[in-house]
Predict the structure.
Amino acid sequence: MRMRKKPNLIPRMEACSDIWIREPEALRGRWKELYPEAREVRLEVGCGKGKFTAETAAAEPDILLLAMERVPEAMVMAMEKVKAAGLTNVFFIGEDVAKAAEFFAPGEIDLLYINFCDPWPHKKHAPRRLTHAGFLKLYQQIMRPGSEIHFKTDNAGLFEFSLEQFTACGFPLRNVTRDLHKDGPVGIMTGYEEKFYQLGTPICRLEAICPETQEVSP
């Protein structure tokens, strides 16, 4: 995500220091301590400006939602949105998901969201796609077996690629659709998703179940 530099970025980030986790590795295996009443610990990969983040946390106050975003200019907007809503069950991690195993213990995540990630359309960049087998192996390290990945994209090519990757990695799939909002809005949308919906762009979505093993087909 490329964004213009935000004025007063550092002071704005500091104003959100109570929900900004600067040393996530220190909480590995202990995330639930941030919100002991949580029935689930969920991870959103690339939360952007935080519309989905804030609305999901507000709708389910009994979950702990951890939002990862490596672009500070986006993350500060998401943090400000959460603070303005008075939410206490959301915390932010300004790191790349590639380091997730350093931050989360095995089985610590109960549900993982991947919403509208960069499609990296060139074939040589396929390993950078967040649904590439390399990332799926990483997610398996931190997710509870039987937990779910919810993936949405407007990019049909990325969706077909992702279907192949999930299948190759042994993730059972359900609720697969290539036009989620065909009969009207479904679920909480991201900011991008709202724009796509208004333009009539089909939204693809699937739910993948984390398998018991971490073996990946060659």
Observations:
- The chain has seven helices and eight strands.
- The chain has one domain: 9-209.
